[in-house]
């Protein structure tokens, strides 16, 4: 197959779709990308990137509030909503334009429209100009996901918000109730509280970030409480509506009430739904192509991202694996290699258990590979070493000594199996452990690397000792 032009059609131009397109084009395929909303990806450019941009601005504000500790006079920052909107729009536009230019320079055909399979070898695209049918030899479905909206809530984009209405909201919240305490929920709590809003978090279980290391979740819960965030533990929201100053239902009211299943309720100026997302698998003709969807609406794939139809692939959020832009991109690359026959050469299989991820709160939280709790649950013998940043020169220089590095290794061989980092720049620092986990490096490999001084990475070397 290598070198033979392959008609490769991709529905959805997010990180999964556009990375598959660029690699396949580079390898000689004839590639068409069909994108409905935004080249670069709706979940990526309308959620991931703007949320991180807002969080970075909030981080700059909290840094200024701590300026006394840096030997500076205290500054009280003020939000410039117009400037913030402009900054986010500019970042999104730059990313969209860079991706578009890259694909066009590789002669990838970009079609602005909605795609749907009409058979196992054809897709129909509906554009502003009409419809077109495109035949393919292989296809990728990478249509992503969208915020989950339950039937008990009707977001109005003004005060009852999905995450996509928040970058920034039309009226900046004085107070906000965030519903859902997964990664999105805690990032939004951090974001709005760093902007000075009074925040309440509705937590359906007894711990924020269910599934994460309880020690890490506890650090975040404490940080939120120290900042005055109210945590409603063990409560599920079941109704959200706007009310007037007297507490009567009013679709134009300036307050929002969130009612929970245990009888508690919270009133604030805004409410944000952060209760997960749903895959975009409806109305794309998967049944006509013979592609099966599982009971949660995701498309099952094998380790090459192949669906039950051998020449049709699925990647990104729609595949029901780890819903991360980084994972979607690497899946896209693997798809392109498989389409062009490169999987017959020596290659590394995708291992989702070795994906690094980060939560952009303050302190930042990042982890990769085997978790301590997971190892104990399975009875696996591990060596855990933990070093606080407080002893590190760079943390003192930065005036921020919060957090720690934890490395998990095999006691017999020293091979690094995983790690977690809580603290400033955790999302950057975890890369060292991620490379070690993927490459099978040992603690000695880290200890014997000559790292920079003064740097937070010195805590990594200490934890590896
Ligand atoms: C609030 C939030 C924050 C996040 N932050 C991070 C983060 O910090 N780091 C991280 O790694 N991940 C993050 N994620 C996850 C990340 O955004 C997604 O995992 C990633 O964007 C998935 O990529 P994708 O290619 O599957 O989908 P998308 O990026 O959504 O791209 C799919 C594209 O398909 C298009 N499409 C859908 N149907 C059709 C159709 N019928 N025809 C044509 N086009 C169609 C859509 O318009 C969309 O542009 C975050 C998610 C959320 C909700
Ligand atoms: N920094 C990042 O990389 C980043 C940021 C955001 C999202 N993401 C990706 O998106 C994925 C999904 O995260 P998420 O947080 O959007 O969704 P999620 O499904 O992980 O979390 C949603 C939470 O809402 C709770 N919930 C559901 N209904 C509720 C109700 N009625 N009342 C109160 N709580 C309710 C659920 O129990 C759950 O804990 C993550 O696993 C991650 O892969 C990544």
Distance between the termini: 48 Å
Strand content: 15-25%
Bound molecules: flavin-adenine dinucleotide, nicotinamide-adenine-dinucleotide
Secondary structure category:
alpha/beta
Total number of helices = 12
What is the CATH topology classification name of the largest domain? FAD/NAD(P)-binding domain
Largest sheet: 5 strands, parallel
List its traits.
465 residues; alpha/beta; FAD/NAD(P)-binding domain; Enolase-like, domain 1; five-stranded parallel sheet; 12 helices; 23 strands; globular; binds nicotinamide-adenine-dinucleotide; flavoprotein; FAD/NAD-linked_Rdtase_dimer_sf
Structural summary, described in words:
The chain has 465 residues and is α/β, with parallel strands linked by helices. Helix content is 31%, strand content 24%. The protein folds into three domains: 7-146 and 278-344, 3-Layer(bba) Sandwich (FAD/NAD(P)-binding domain); 160-275, FAD/NAD(P)-binding domain, CATH 3.50.50.60; 363-464, Enolase-like, domain 1 (2-Layer Sandwich), CATH 3.30.390. The chain has a five-stranded parallel sheet with strand order 3-2-1-7-18, covered by helices on one side. A hairpin with a 6-residue loop joins strand 22 and strand 23. The protein binds flavin-adenine dinucleotide and nicotinamide-adenine-dinucleotide. Nicotinamide-adenine-dinucleotide binds next to helix 4 and strand 19.
Brief summary:
The protein has 465 residues and is of the alpha/beta class. The chain folds into three domains: 7-146 and 278-344, FAD/NAD(P)-binding domain (3-Layer(bba) Sandwich), CATH 3.50.50; 160-275, 3-Layer(bba) Sandwich (FAD/NAD(P)-binding domain), CATH 3.50.50.60; 363-464, FAD/NAD-linked reductase, C-terminal dimerisation domain (Enolase-like, domain 1, 2-Layer Sandwich), CATH 3.30.390.30.
